[in-house]
Every structure is written in C-alpha cells, then in structure tokens.
Amino acid sequence: MMKHSKGMTHEHHHEISKHNHSKKNSGYDRHTGHSVKMFRDRFFISLLITIPILFLSPTFQSLLNFSLDFPGRKIILSILASIVSIYGGIPFFVGAVREIKQKNFGMMTLVALAVLSGYLYSLSATFIFEATDFYWEISTLVVFLLFGHWMEMKAVTGATGALGELAKLIPKQANLVRGNNIIPINTDELKIGDIFLVKPGEKIPIDGIVVEGETNVNESMITGESKPILKIKNDKVIGGSINFDGSIKVRVIKTGKDTALNQIVGLVKQAQESKPRTQRIADKAANYLTISAIIVGIFSFIYWISIGNQTLVFALTIAITVVVIACPHALGLAIPVVTTISTTIAAKNGMIIKDMSAMEIAEKIDYILFDKTGTLTKGVFEVTDIVGDKKTLEYASSIESHSEHVIAKGIIQKAKEMKIKIPEVKQFKAIPGKGAVGKFINNNIYAGNLALIEQFKLKNDFKKEAEEIALKGKTIVYVAYKTKVIGVIALSDVIKPEAREVIILLKQMGIKTAMLTGDNEQTARYVAKELGIDDYFSEVLPEDKVKKVKELQSKGKVAMVGDGINDAPALTQADIGIAIGAGTEVAIQSAEVILAKDNPLEVVKLVRLSKQTKNKMRQNLWWAAGYNLVAIPIAAGIFYPGIMLKPEWGALIMAASSIIVVGNSLLLKRFK
Asked: What is the pTM of this model?
C-alpha cells in the first residue's frame, strides 16, 4: 500500500522539485512537464509578436481609427499569427492529444479546439476565400491563455512548494568523525555505522543514535511538537531536526528511503496522488462540461449564423468564446490544490495522511473507537495509592526489585521518586500468579495479591479498604511483614491528562466515542466512566478487536485509534485507521493516518483539519460549477447586443476563475 520515496540524495531533491508538475492522477496537472518559466517565456514572446499583429489587422485599425496597408501585409500577418498560434499553443495542443488518447476530454481539448478553429478559419480567409480574418482575436486569445496559465501555475507552485521545503530540511553537508579528525562530506555519502558531529545551531543531517554528549533538539518538523527534547547517550535523533545548545556525536542508523523524513515525504506524496471521492466527481463533471461546451458552442454558431442572421466571423467568435470560457480548469483545480495544502499542513503538525479519502471520511465519522492501553492511558503502571505503615513501599520495593513484572516496575519507580533506599532481601521466591516472598533480617516479607495473603494465612486488616480501591479499576498489592499485612499499594495504568479533554471536544463535535481493552470489566467500566466514553468493550483479545469494530460499523462510520502493532487488523477494518504515537516510525501499513505524537488530542486536530479541508473542497466546487452556469450563457450571447464577450476576454475570465480557486485553497494555510 505504501510507496517509499527515494533516498534523500541530490537526485531526490530534484525528484521532489519536479513533483509539482509530474503527478499522473492530479486534476490540476493538465500541463505535465511544463514549468512556470515555460509559460512565462511563451507569454512574453507571444505578446511581443501579437503587438505588430494588432497594428496589421484591419479590424483593430478601424477600432483605433487609423490605416496601415502595404503589399504582402496579409502574408506577414498570417506568418506572425502562425508563430503565436503554434509556438504559444503547443502546450495546449500536446495536452489535448494526451486527453484525447486517454478519452478524458478537458481543459486542453477545449483550448486547442478554440485556437485551431480560429486560426484555420483565418488562414482560409487569407488564402482560400474572401472574408475578414480572425488573426488578432486568436493571437490575443493565446496570449491571455498563456498569461492565465502562468499566473495559475505560480499560485499552484505556491500551494505545493511546501513538500519541497521538507526536502530542504536535510543539510547538504555533514561533519564525519574519523579518529581525531572532522571531515566535511556530503550528507548522501554517509553510511550506516558512520559517526558524525553536530555542533550547536546545526541541523542533524540524518537519522542516528547519540554516542557522545547531550543537547536539546527541536523535532517539530516531524512531530509538530515545538518544545525542545533533551537527547542524551543512546537516544535517537532525526535527520532534519535542529540541534540547540550542545555538541553531540551521532552514529548513523538509517539512510536513504528508510529515514523518517524520506518516509514522510513519500507518504505525503502518496496521499497527494490519491484521489478522494470528491475529486472523482469533479473529474467526471469536467469531462461532461467539456462535451457540453462543444455542443453549446456548435449550437451557438448555428443559431447566430442562421436564426440570429449574423456574419460568419460573429458566429465563430461566439462559438470560440463559449468553448474557451467553459474550460473546466477551475473544476480540475478545485480538489487537488486543497489536497496538496491540507496534507502538507498535516505533515508539518505531525499528522501523516496516507490516503486522502480519510480526510473526506473523517468529517463524517459517527464513532471514534480508542484502544485503551497506550492511547487513552500511558501504558505503564504507576502507584496511585499507598495505605498503611510507612514501611509499606520500602518492603514492597525490596521484594519487587527481583521481578521484571510491569507491576514491579511501577513500585520500583515510585520508590526511586521518593528516594527510598531499597533494602536487600534474601531467599527470594516467586509464587506464580500470586506474588513473591523473601527474608529481611530473618523475617518474612510478602508482596502480592489476596490469594498470596490467604495462602500464608496472614492477618489482614486492610481487605475492606483494598476492595474499595479496587472498585476504581486499580490493581492491589498487599504488603505483609512477619505475620500480618502492614499496608496496601494500588497501581493503575494512568489515564493521560489529555484524554478527558479529547472526549469532551469530540462530543461537542457530535462524535460518539468508544473504548476497547483487554482489561477486566471493572477496570474498563471505571476508565469509561472517568472519561465519559459512550461505549466500551472489556476483556477483548487482540483477534477479537475486528469484531468490535464491525459491531460499531453497524451503527455508522468508525475511526479506530490504536498503536498500529497489535491493533493492525482493527485499524484496517475501520473506515479510518489512525495509528497514534508512531513517532519517527511512520511506515505503518494498516493505518490511513499516522499521528507522530503520543497524544490523543491529535485526533481532534485531525477531525478539525478534515472539516476545514472538506469546506474548501465544497467552496471550490460551488465556485467552479457556478461560474460555468453563469459564464456559458453570457458567452453564448443571451445578452447580445447589450453584452458580447470576445474569446480573449473569455480566456481572461476563465483564468481568473482558476486563480480564485487556487487563492481560496491557499486560505487553508491560515488554519491553526
């Protein structure tokens, strides 16, 4: 499903810079391979040649009330007009041939038809029959078309350029460490295992592990988190992130397509090349509009030359204007420019959209299903309550220091936080499923569950208190010394502080929430109640998560939020799979959306961005469709003699419509 980008070599920089003009499926790519510079150059050259065409045209001379005639004027006029029509029209003719081959008639087909019909008619009027030529109108039409495309391409490049900015995050050079020497080399020459030096203020050139020194690093380009992160020995660093205040030596662990930034660039490109449903609708509409424009143009020509009793030139002018003004360029731009901007905004905020269909669906989600552990909770057990003798934690930690169990780690961590000196126990013995026992100064210490206390028939004055704490979904560890229980330690998988806010915000958006967990009913019920979650599923085995997703899907569209590992089948089954806390490991196959930060609030950001993206898509489609509904009848001459549009003005209005769509899309960049 995922396409990796190429390594961040010089070729890769070049590949990314070409990206804006090389997408095969993009609606706005009606001129593949043609750059802003190409349209600009053709515009200026065509404009210079059009100036003498205007002064040599009898129609233009009569408009300005002057006369300029000499032998061979018509020949010179036809040669100059041929240069403009052919040289200026080549991008449109090439595009038209491609559209016709693909049987996907659109913008280029209409433009080529309009230019060719006017040009060939004018040549005929010069060399075959006696009639007024159409040279100056066709030449100015080509000039306006080139100008419109130049402006539009500039706007589109502004919209898509942010992806290239990601590539620029990688510095061209790195400081390779060779013994006691520092050798500047090209970043793309680094190999796995190489050691490089990063000085304060420099960008980290490639993914690696710190082997010496410590510093603070800004990783916002990957995670969207602006707060600097402390990096010490054995910590991972990301290529493109910024080193703040310390010098560090780093060992290369990833190169080429495997680096975090390259994976992100590849995934964003994949998303921008994916076609959401709205885009497919727009493509169909553009195809129908092209066919409709040709039909309306032909009928307009027939009407004005017969029933309207107008000249051939007048009828041809109307027909060409209809064809030009109906060019579905705005319709073709309406969705892909928004797609490009929204995926780039998402990437800059640590949200990697792998499939743009997810952005459409996210707006319509009925349920968001969270996997509890590691998503709504921290995924590590922490001590929440200590009841009883002051020696309770000390004795418990002495026993648990011999265990690798997740509960033991939570107790040891608490002892370290409270700076308790952990006493050493002897004759440690684990009691499977119950706890452990050991000796301290020839006296037994016990740490475990109620079954352990009952097995050794120890006096227990804390049973009632422990049961009350357990009702809150917490795990109870009894601690006993000699012959009786001296205290109780309660632990729980602590709820993330952002989790409550997420549920509240989603409810305000009208989205229901659900939770699934492998925990028992008591714990699941407590967490769901604490957070205000609408529905929950407890004691769910990994292989049963898909069933729960399907169960919710019977009630509406479902987004599943999980860690992307044991949640993979459920993420795939959901209407949108959202992998959270992926950090730099972005290549997760099962999710449509990857959230780099381990923060459930990112889900709210995703829904908000989805709504903004869909709004822009709707606005652009309404404008593009509405413009044609108004413009085509006017071009066909329904207001003549009051209003009559010439082809060149039709071209300018058509270009303006496209630029408005791009401009409206660019407003999405303001979204915070």
From this structure: 0.66
